[in-house]
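Sequence design from tokenized structure. All designs in this work follow the same two-part layout: the structure record, then the generated sequence. An example of the structure record is given first.
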């Protein structure tokens, strides 16, 4: 930092152009190193969020079964947690306080629900990840209640 003398009684301090450029280069290097790490954390956060939502659906389905006596079938789907399916007795919902529709997965797609489940479970709930296709790695990895 240099002092500039404007008049005999005032002096102004400030940064030189070189000092500002050095700071900008350092900030650019830090952003280049930290940026990919932050983006990686955001993509894994969506997968963890999907896993938590699936676990919440599972707990809510258990409550539904206690009151109705069975899980919603595949045709009734997760919507049965919000509006009573026709012919169901003992329904005391809504079981999800999300409005009129089932929440979508973190990537904006519908969760897949099947009951009876095909993976040695009473029901299957899954999200197909960011690409909405079976399989995949990273952000495209499927999230389900049958795979830990």
């Amino acid at each position: 930092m240099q002092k500039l003398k404007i008049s005999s009684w005032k002096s102004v301090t400030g940064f030189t152009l070189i000092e500002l450029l050095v700071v900008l280069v350092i900030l650019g290097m830090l952003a280049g190193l930290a940026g990919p790490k932050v983006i990686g954390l955001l993509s894994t956060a969506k997968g963890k969020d999907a896993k938590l939502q699936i676990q919440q659906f599972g707990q809510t389905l258990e409550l539904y079964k206690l009151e109705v006596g069975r899980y919603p079938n595949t045709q009734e789907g997760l919507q049965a947690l919000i509006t009573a399916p026709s012919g169901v007795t003992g329904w005391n919902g809504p079981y999800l306080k999300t409005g009129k529709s089932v929440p979508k997965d973190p990537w904006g797609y519908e969760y897949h629900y099947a009951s009876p489940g095909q993976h040695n479970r009473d029901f299957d709930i899954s999200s197909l990840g960011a690409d909405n296709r079976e399989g995949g790695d990273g952000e495209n990895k499927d999230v389900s209640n049958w795979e830990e």
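Helices lie at 17-68. We note this feature because it recurs in several other targets discussed in the main text.
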